[in-house]
Amino acid sequence: MKNFIYIIFFMSSFSNAQMAIGKPEVSGSSTLLDFDDSATNTKGILLPTVTDASTVPTNNGTFIYDILTKQVKMYENDAWINLTSEGNTNSLIINSAAEKPGNTGVIIGSETSPVEGILVLESSNKAMILPKIADPHLNVKSPYPGMMCYDTVSNTLAVFDGSNWNYWK
Length: 169
Prior knowledge:
signal, about 170 residues, mainly beta
């Protein structure tokens, strides 16, 4: 995870570029951020783990893992929507380091953004393609709470709450 953050910070100087992680190039011209889509991939995105969702900047489309409720959540239209039932936080490794003042995260797709986040994707005509994993509940041996991917077998969004995989169509 630490190496992923360093790669993102390094690549931030290419804020208008398309970016591929774990593969040589993005799929298609309408992709802003793309991940490994090989048949053997078992790595997903780890969502930010926060101690309380009420302290997170509220922008539509924000995804988090909330330690307080042990749930993956998405912010939409002035409310947090629970994407999972209560999970388990036993395997969480809590980062107790204080954030640096003025740390605004990384923006990909634009020089600036009106929203705050550790990773902000800004584009009016490009999207992110989630990491693709076949049957994550079978193939990801040690999923981490807040992991997100696209299940290529069920064709659904898969999110792990620390106990179970939850699938959204």
